[in-house]
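LCP family protein
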Amino acid sequence: MSVQWDGSPPDRAGRRRADGGVRTDDAPRTDDGLRTERPEDGTGRLPAPRPGGRIEARRAAQSRGAPGRTGAAEGGRAAGRGGRRDADRSPARDGRRGARRLIAWSVAGVLVVLAGAGGAVYYKLNGNLRSFDADAVAPDRPPEPTADAHGHRPVNLLLIGSDSRAGNNSDLGGGDEAGARSDTTILLHVYADHRHAVGISIPRDALVTVPRCKLPNGKWTREQSGQMFNSAFSVGNSETGNPACTQNTVERLTGIRVDHTIEVNFEGFAAMTGAVGGVDVCLPNDIHEGHINPNLGRKGKVVLAKGRQRVAGQQALDYVRLRHGIGDDSDVGRMKRQQAFLASLLAKIKSKGLSPGTLLPLADAATRSMTVDPGLDSAAKLMDFALTLKGIDLHEVKFLTTPWRYSGARIDLVHPAVDTLWRTLQADRTIDGQDATGHQADAPAPSAEPTPTPTTAAEPSPIATDGAPIRVTVYNGTSAAGLAARAAETLRAARVTVAGTATSRGTARATTTVEYGAGQRAAAEKVATLFPGAAVAPGQGAGISLLLGRDYAAGGAASGTPSPAATGPSGAPTQLPTEVVNEARSADDDICSNVSYG
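Tokens:
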């Protein structure tokens, strides 16, 4: 059944026209309240009572004060039968039967209206949704996660908040810059038991490798290293952004397969907060107009007051985008507030109940400004996915930021801590080193020989260069995805300049080798110390090239394989540093705690 829904009220009988309008109620009616048919009514209208029917006969009999009689034929057989039938019908019994018929028809009418409205709502949501091209997803993706003993798989959801100024977003965002950037990016890992989840904020200024991405004209870009993370969303410089490129970049960075991606812009975010009746937040001090817009030139009035408050629409957007006037004015502090806001939003939705009645208004608000991956490109898919999350306990939803450090005006991801984080999620273990059901990793079997501490577990120290920078080009000599990007991160952590990353023509290299040109042997040997077991050999070019082999892939740099720096003796991921775990926020934490930095 397909009904165009326009929100019009029903008529007295609770019916709607198929075109969404209200059925007019000005037609003449009989004394029994039935609507007579007019020539213009056409099909689908109720006809007038049939002449000579039971209603007319009963009315005539009642007017003569002789129930059950039919006039001159009063003593006839037909009259007797009719009299007996009508005599058996007491007014109370007629009332009960009429009430039952009325209830039955009313229930049927309500069901029809609900079915039509439901279909119309889903139709509307489908019309709201936009999805990106499946062909824009990189072909060399990390493998799908394995199922647990019960056949359940973890789910990885990429959440992107964009700052596109297209349409009404310009008014909400307070600017008119062209193109779009990713203001917020969180990788949400839902564990296989669907009762635990952890959201990882990725700093937008973090320096990463942006892989090949599809442009709006259908062409693909070249891989670029040392780029700000949020530049991936800007590839192609379109008004709507490039969420597929951000997904490709996250998969390359983490070695984790992203199952679904959802991008919401300013307008959609503001509408979502209104749909749930506002979200509770907290601030350590007053925020003025000048903090929201540093170009204002004056302090201005208070926009967000100190302490607890409920925000929606523009105020909610101001809260999650706020950088100035609180903490050290950094994006790191802003990520903390975004995590606190999402935790509070989840608590609000959970309190209202994850039912279609709660989710439909929220979905309607969100989908007006939402772009999703092809796997969530319908209202039914989106609702089904949302309902699978209803069993997650708020205390078991954690938020944290990737291990990071300042690098001038930018941010570096800290190794090996960030590698341990990705390996932990790949193994479907919580950030404190347990599986989602609370079991610790198995202890290693006793050994007569002490287990040596892996030398690669420590963060690479900066390479002494005597003032001369070392530049290295990285080549993946295997068929495993993501090796070059990971090796590049290791080099940058040691303050080595990465000139570029690429895949070798041959993909059967066995041993990792550092090749060097004239006068570069000493520098090549320093680079080799970062990759235990790597060979050093003269090369054809003038610079230094790192050729990654199967030994490096087997050591864990390939997607989905724990690296020596991220695993303990038993093969399970080592625990994250205490300071990283302690910074994590639970969705049920106090909304006034941990909302600024510096």
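DSSP finds 16 helices and 21 strands in the chain.
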